[in-house]
């Protein structure tokens, strides 16, 4: 038997994979910080619970969402936008946990975008079957800052396309602890998530959680 090899396989890989100019996956970057991140998610969701927002067309979004930080992304019948307060209780979104800020700064710097201080963190929760259709992140005023996207829990297939909706999308398997960064010439690339497969993750159970950090203002 080769227990070391087995352990390595079980944990997933590390290292970096270029997806396109300005876009890359940092494999396993968040894995050593996962327990602190999960504690931070629990603190945030105790104050601003996950909810299914409505699209402007009135459809319930597949992923449950909440936010932390100075600005939170919301969707409702009036459209997509950033708001400083949670519409559920009118209070400011919870602050970003220190564990989130530490991780995002390190990941952005490792990806070649030093000095990133995000003002918005969207937290997406995917139960098996949940998906996110192809879209661009373009509600932010500052498009010079990259998107930093952290995957925790169940694996998922990330679609990473081009600057037009009809461009071909690559399919990238994202595992617990992987971080995707896209900025510069890739900042407005279309992306999405295929329906999450049934499964149970040792730390997060029957769900995938994604943290998306942005500079919105
Ligand atoms: C998003 O685009 O907001 C989420 C992407 C992901 O869940 O990995
Ligand atoms: Fe997105």
Would you kindly provide a written description of the structure presented here, covering whatever features stand out?
This protein has a single domain, classed as Alpha-ketoglutarate-dependent dioxygenase AlkB-like (Jelly Rolls), CATH 2.60.120. The chain has helices at about 5-10, 35-45, 100-110, and strands at about 15-20, 25, 65-70, 70-75, 80-85, 120-125, 130-135, 145-155, 155-160, 170-175, 180, 190-195, 210-215. By secondary structure, it is of the alpha+beta class. The strands form 3 sheets. The chain has a 7-stranded antiparallel β-sheet, with helices on one face. It has a 4-stranded antiparallel β-sheet with strand order 7-12-9-10, with no helix packed on it. It has a two-stranded antiparallel sheet with strand order 4-5. Helix content is about 15%, strand content about 30%. It is built from 3 helices and 13 strands; from the N terminus they run H-E-E-H-E-E-E-H-E-E-E-E-E-E-E-E. The relative contact order is 0.22. The N and C termini lie far apart (about 55 Å). Strand 1 (about 15-20) and strand 2 (about 25) form a beta hairpin.
Mean pLDDT: 94
First and last CA, distance: 54 Å
Structural class by SSE content: alpha+beta
Strand portion: 25-35%
DSSP strand count: 13
> Please, how many domains?
1
Write the layout of secondary structure elements.
Blueprint: H1 3-11, E1 15-20, E2 23-27, H2 34-47, E3 64-68, E4 72-76, E5 79-83, H3 98-110, E6 120-126, E7 132-135, E8 147-153, E9 156-160, E10 170-174, E11 179-182, E12 191-193, E13 208-214
Antiparallel strand pairs: 1-2, 2-11, 3-6, 4-5, 6-13, 7-12, 8-11, 8-13, 9-10, 9-12
This protein binds succinic acid (SIN) and fe (ii) ion (FE2).
């Amino acid at each position: 038997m080769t227990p070391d090899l087995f352990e390595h396989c079980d944990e997933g890989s590390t290292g970096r994979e270029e997806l396109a100019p300005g876009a890359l996956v940092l494999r396993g970057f968040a894995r050593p910080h996962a327990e602190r991140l999960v504690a931070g998610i629990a603190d945030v969701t105790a104050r601003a619970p996950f909810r299914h927002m409505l699209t402007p067309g009135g459809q319930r979004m597949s992923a449950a969402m909440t936010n932390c930080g100075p600005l939170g992304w919301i969707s409702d019948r009036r459209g997509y936008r950033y708001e400083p307060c949670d519409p559920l209780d009118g209070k400011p979104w919870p602050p970003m946990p220190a564990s989130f800020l530490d991780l995002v700064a390190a990941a952005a710097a490792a990806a070649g975008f030093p000095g990133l201080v995000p003002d918005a963190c969207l937290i997406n929760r995917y139960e098996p079957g949940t998906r996110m259709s192809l879209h661009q992140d373009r509600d932010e005023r500052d498009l010079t800052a990259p998107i930093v996207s952290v995957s925790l829990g169940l694996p998922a297939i990330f679609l990473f396309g081009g600057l037009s909706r009809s461009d071909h999308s690559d399919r990238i398997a994202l595992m617990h602890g992987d971080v995707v960064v896209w900025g510069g010439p890739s900042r407005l690339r279309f992306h999405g998530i295929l329906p999450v497969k049934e499964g149970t993750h040792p730390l997060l159970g029957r769900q995938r959680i994604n943290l998306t950090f942005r500079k919105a203002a």
